[in-house]
Task: inverse folding
């Protein structure tokens, strides 16, 4: 069976496109002291499955719909639990000048679906598996 990264390295097509060419610049964020209920509402309102968690604009973590489902399965109320209590804090990031192949590799190696894009210590975008599928389709 072919490895996913091999799709991006086979044939005569070059996969040196930059993350900045496919990332979303208007990142939907949520503060770490928001409730899970607020996070779910925001995700549903924007049609997304994860949010970048910030504290006064500083990157603190990521909360995905799966994180919230796990908390609720454990009997926690979405209205009483803070995002900071369920978010992932071990954040894998990428730079805007890294290649799409690097983004794919990081996602596969870390079993993640979204990468905050950071430049000079500042959040400048996000790239998700959906964005990478778009990049592949455009090739």
Result:
């Amino acid at each position: 069976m072919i490895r996913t990264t091999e799709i991006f390295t086979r044939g005569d097509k070059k996969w040196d496109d930059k993350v900045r060419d496919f990332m979303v610049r208007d990142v939907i964020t949520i503060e770490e002291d928001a409730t899970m209920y607020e996070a779910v509402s925001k995700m549903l309102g924007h049609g997304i499955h994860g949010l970048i968690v910030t504290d006064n604009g500083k990157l603190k973590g990521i909360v995905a719909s799966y994180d919230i489902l796990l908390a609720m399965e454990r009997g926690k109320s979405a209205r009483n639990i803070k995002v900071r209590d369920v978010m992932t804090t071990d954040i894998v990031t990428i730079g805007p000048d890294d290649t799409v192949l690097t983004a794919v590799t990081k996602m596969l190696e870390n079993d993640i679906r979204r990468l905050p894009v950071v430049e000079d210590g500042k959040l400048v975008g996000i790239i998700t598996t959906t964005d990478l599928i778009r990049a592949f389709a455009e090739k």
Summary: The beta strands are 29-31, 50-55, 58-64, 114-119, 122-128. Residues 13-138 form a domain with the CBS-domain fold (CATH 3.10.580.10). Residues 36-46 form the longest helix (11 residues). The first strand starts at residue 29 and ends at 31.
